[in-house]
Design brief:
Layout (H helix, E strand, L loop, with lengths): L24 E3 L5 E5 L5 E5 L3 E9 L2 E8 L2 E8 L2 H8 L3 E4 L16 E9 L2 H4 L6
Parallel strand pairs: 2-7
Antiparallel strand pairs: 1-7, 2-3, 4-5, 5-6, 6-8
Length: 133
């Protein structure tokens, strides 16, 4: 028997009986890159070799995971990010995407739930990365 992880879909039935996928991330120990899919149909691929750091904090009852790559900073907002953070530490997050807001109430209380992903391009002037700041 295969054990389900929190990253696997929980599929509650909608009003019309259709099963909905709530999966907002996937773990893969062989991942070479992190694929980020946004709500507006854009996607990005970030090589793990360009990962500079990550940090996590709780603010206003939500988890905020900040992930910095050489060219972009990500800000991931949601809840129950412990498993996601551990997988990221192991460079084992294959992809992430925000779950549709309408599924917030349906998500299991203990499951990883990504509400929002913000991506900002890093400029040398604003980051201070080249100046040693």
């Amino acid at each position: 028997m295969i054990k389900a992880t929190q990253s696997e879909a929980r599929t509650p039935a909608s009003a019309d009986g259709e099963q909905k996928q709530l999966t907002c991330w996937n773990k893969d120990a062989q991942a070479q890159c992190l694929r980020v899919e946004l709500s507006d149909e854009r996607s990005f691929i970030f090589p793990y070799t360009h990962l500079t750091f990550a940090s996590m904090k709780r603010e206003g009852g939500r988890d905020i995971l900040a992930v910095s790559f050489a060219t972009h900073d990500l800000r991931i907002i949601g809840r129950n990010f412990r498993e996601l953070g551990i997988a990221l530490q192991k460079l084992a997050v294959d992809w992430i995407r925000p779950a549709p807001a309408r599924y917030t109430a349906l998500a299991a209380n203990e499951a990883v739930f990504i509400e929002k992903i913000e991506i900002e391009e890093v400029s040398e002037e604003s980051s201070g990365r080249e100046s040693g700041r």
